[in-house]
Amino acid sequence: MTASHKSAHAPLELESFLPYRLSILSNTVSQAIADDYQQRYHLSVTEWRVMAVLARFEGLSAREVAERTAMDKVAVSRALARLVEAGRVSRCTHDADKRRSVLALTAEGWAIHDVVAPLARSHESRLLEKLDTEERHWLDRILRKLASG
Amino acid sequence: MTASHKSAHAPLELESFLPYRLSILSNTVSQAIADDYQQRYHLSVTEWRVMAVLARFEGLSAREVAERTAMDKVAVSRALARLVEAGRVSRCTHDADKRRSVLALTAEGWAIHDVVAPLARSHESRLLEKLDTEERHWLDRILRKLASG
DNA sequence: GCGTTATAGTTTCAAATGAAACCACTTGCA
DNA sequence: TGCAAGTGGTTTCATTTGAAACTATAACGC
């Protein structure tokens, strides 16, 4: 048996390896959505995530945005710099704690949100159309389990 | 009704938005695995994917590696440069077509493979332990459907 | 109060990434 | 032949990313 005899090495089959499948699927889906607004609004995925969170929770601090988007604070800081610069997000400092910023979408930010949110939702719908009702329930249940601690 | 009245804007709930959930899950899982070998072997995820493919299919060209890893050819070219430099992959030119390279793991490459592959598999197992047999079947079926055309 | 430790956020520097230009070889076709 | 078009692969350049250092403010212990 030579050193490179395959069965001795049990090579990984990427196409059935769960982490790999998740990675490919996730990238494909995210990229397809991003393609739809990235150019048109000059808006990155990280920027869009920040906007989506601020649409739901006005007045959050940067750290809270980072928590809710699962992004690190450097990425959030940079996304915010661009969004504030572009007039899409307003930023002031917290009254009681001058380290914290208080963030919210501006009217312009809301206008973009109101176009991009339905667009993202429609992409999700198109994806979910590939599944029947039963499969969607299982998917939700399984993702919750996999994502838990 | 003010301009920022929430229900008028229907903000996206990231935590139930499928593309977002996939992205978080995929990143968490991949990072956890990478943490286990990245430092120890000074091996990036892209490099590992290339090695995993070469473990299964000896003699592939760079383009074929790119196809099988779903990476672009630039990423593959760079990963290969590092792997060849590190003595983990051997590269020669194809007899009949001098543009193509013929790639394979070296003994050293196999040695690393034989540590990292079981390690990756065990991570996957730990992840799948969160699911019962029925859920695993559904997951496989659902991922196949979502990933199709 | 006052030094120590912790937290919010930004900046810096090095490495990773992607698009497009590029080089080398091969193929197709007059 | 021989030259235009195509393919395999690398390099270049601009942008993105991440880790660690840094600044400013707040909280804690005494």
Question: What can you tell me about this protein's structure?
Answer:
Two copies of one chain form a homodimer. Chain A has 149 residues and is mainly alpha-helical. In chain A, 66% of the residues lie in helices and 7% in strands. The first copy, chain A, has helices at 6-9, 18-41, 45-56, 62-69, 73-85, 107-128, 133-147; strands at residues 89-93, 101-105. In chain A, helix 2 (18-41) packs across helix 6 (107-128). The radius of gyration of chain A is 20 Å and the shape is globular. Chain A starts with 5 loop residues before the first helix and ends with a helix. At the A-B interface, helix 2, helix 3, helix 6 and helix 7 of A face helix 2, helix 3, helix 6 and helix 7 of B. Chain B binds a DNA duplex (30 and 30 nucleotides) through residues 44, 46, 61-63, 72-78, 80-81, 97-101.
Task: Write the SSE topology.
Two copies of one chain form a homodimer.
Chain A: H1 6-9, H2 18-41, H3 45-56, H4 62-69, H5 73-85, E1 89-93, E2 101-105, H6 107-128, H7 133-147
Antiparallel strand pairs in A: 1-2
Helix pairs in contact in A: 2-6, 3-4, 3-6, 4-5
The structure holds a DNA duplex (30 and 30 nucleotides).
